[in-house]
Amino acid sequence: MQRTLSIKTESISGCTVHNTIKLTSDHAITIDETIKTRKLLYDFSITDIKEQERLLFIEGNGPNKQYIRFLVPRDSVLDPGSPLKAESGTDNYTIFSTRQDTDPMKQSTLNFGYISKIPNCTTDLNSYKQPGLVNMEVIKQ
Questions:
Q1: Which residue among 60, 66, 116, 136 has the highest number of C-beta atoms inside a 10 angstrom radius?
Q2: Whole-angstrom distance, CA of residue 10 vs CA of residue 23
Q3: Euclidean distance between CA atoms 94 and 69, whole angstroms
Q4: How many CB atoms lie within 10 A of CB 17?
Q5: Are residues 44 and 10 part of one domain?
Q6: Cα 71 off chain centre by
Q7: What is the mean pLDDT of residues 109-132?
Q8: Is residue 75 domain-shared with residue 123, that is, in the same domain?
Q9: Are 101 and 64 contacting, i.e. CB atoms less than 8 angstroms apart?
């Protein structure tokens, strides 16, 4: 999986900003890799459909299912119609969450926006990704 996270931040007024987020996930498996894996299943006489699906998934040939969480400043508010759900976090942050599925050789995109009041009116935007998450580019605008 290749992922690109684009973050665009615009000042609304005072210490209030609007963030626009775009997460693009690209299931980079190729048809050649899928054919090679299916040939191996045939060569090893693995005919059970459930076992084939399990092995294809392990090999990365199946749909990618992601549970996505964004930790944002406390009291941030999602734009109307957002596909995410807001959950309470701690005293410092709120959690926006959803699920994103990406089929093999396809791309999926998640778009949403939210408004935040920035503590102390700092202008720095910090973003962190989960440790161990590879193949993800972060673009700040």
A1: 116
A2: 18
A3: 10
A4: 20
A5: no
A6: 13
A7: 79
A8: yes
A9: yes
Task: Out of 38, 62, 86, pick the residue that ends a domain.
Answer: 62
**Residue 24 corresponds to which amino acid?**
T
Strand (E) positions, the chain?
2-13, 16-26, 64-73, 77-78, 85-88, 93-102, 107-117, 136-140
Which residue reads 């090893």 in tokens?
44
Q: Summarize the confidence of residues 62-75 as an average pLDDT.
A: 87
- CA pair distance 40, 46, nearest whole angstrom: 9
**Do residue 22 and residue 33 come from a single domain?**
no
Q: How far apart are CA 98 and CA 132, in angstroms?
A: 20
Distance CA 88, CA 71 (A): 10
Domain span including residue 42 = 29-62
Place of tokens 């699906």: 53
pTM value? 0.75
Q: Within 13 Å, how many C-alpha atoms sit on residue 89's CB side?
A: 17
